[in-house]
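Give me the fold.
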Amino acid sequence: MQDEQQPAVLPLAGFTVGVTAARRADELAVLLERRGAAVLRAPALRIVPLPDDTELMAATKRLLDLCPDIVIATTAIGFRGWIEAADGWGLGEALLERLRGVELLARGPKVRGAIRAAGLREAWSPASESMAEVLDRLLEQGVEGRRIGVQLHGEPLPGFIEALKEAGADIVGVPVYRWMPPEDIAPVDRMLDAIAARSLDCVSFTSAPAAASLLDRAERRGILTEVLDALRHDVLAACVGPVTALPLEAHDVPTYQPERFRLGPLVQLVCAELPGRVRPLPVAGHRVEIRGHAVVVDGELRAVPPAGMALLRALARRPGWVVPRSDLLRVLPGAGRDEHAVETAMTRLRTALGAPKLIHTVVKRGYRLALDPSADAKYASA
C-alpha cells in the first residue's frame, strides 16, 4: 500500500524548467530538481568578478573622497563582496571607517546581518524590506543638499535614484555585481529555441537584467515574436519579484511572482502553477495527465519519447474525437510523408503509457483517445 505521506509523483515531475540565473543558479536548479523537474540551464548574463571590477574600485575611492551623509546597503551578498573587494585593494579599513561615520541604512534583515558581521551598525532598516519604504523615509526627512551612496547590485531601482535626485540629493552609485553578456551564448540560444518550440514548460527569472538580456538575444536572432508568443500563451514566466518582471511585462508577457521575493517561494510558486495547468483526462478507466515531457497514468509517471508526446498532444486537443493519420503525420517530427511512421510512433507510445487501450485505432480513419463515456458529452461541448 502506498504511503499517503509520500506523493507518487513529485509536483514538477514531467516538466522542464529553464534557469536564466547566473548567481545562485546551482541552488535554484537543485530546488527544482528535488521536486522532479528537468532543468535547462542558460545563464543569460555573467557577473564581473568584484576584485577585477575597475568601476567598483573607482566608485569606492570616490565614496571615500566625497564623505557621504547616508549610505544605503541593498543586498547582503553585495555588501559582503564590496567589503572583501575593498580589503583586497587595500581600501578595506578606510571603507569601514567611512561607513562608521555615516547614516547606514539596510534594506532588510540579511543586509543587517552582513553589516553587523563587518563590525558596523545600521541606523535603520524597513520592516517591509522594500526600497519604496526606504525612499519614503528619506523624502520625508528631506535630502536636499545631502550626499547619498547607494550600493547597486545589477538590478534597476525604478524611480528610486531619480526621485532622490529630484529632491536635491547628490547620488554616488556603487555598482556591485555588474552584468555582462555570457562568454558562451550557445546555452542561451538553445533555451530560446526551446521556448519558441514550446518544449519548455517554464522559464525562471531572478534578475531584470537577465530577462532583458534574454529578450535582447531573441531580437538579435530575429525570433523575438515567436519567443514572446510562447511566453504569452504556453511557457510560464516565473519571476522572483516585480522588479525582475519589468522587462517581460513591458512586452505584455504575463508573469507570476511569489509573495516573498526568495528562491524558495519562487520554486513553490512553480510547483503550484505547472501542475495546475494540466487538465486530467478520464480515459479507458484511467486518469491521465499530460505533462511537458511525460505522462502521469493513475498516479504513475511514464516517460514518453518526443514523437509519442507529439502524437498524444494532437489526440488530446479533442479527446474522444478521431484524428486522421494525415493530421498526426504533420505533427510528427522528422516523419516526412510516410504514414507508416505514425504507426511505429503510436506503437511506441502505447508501450510507454503502459495501458494500450488508452488509444483506439479507428480502421481506415486514424486514432482517438478512448475517453470514458461519462466524459464524452463534457469534452464534446468544450
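The CA atoms of residues 107 and 255 lie 25 Å apart.
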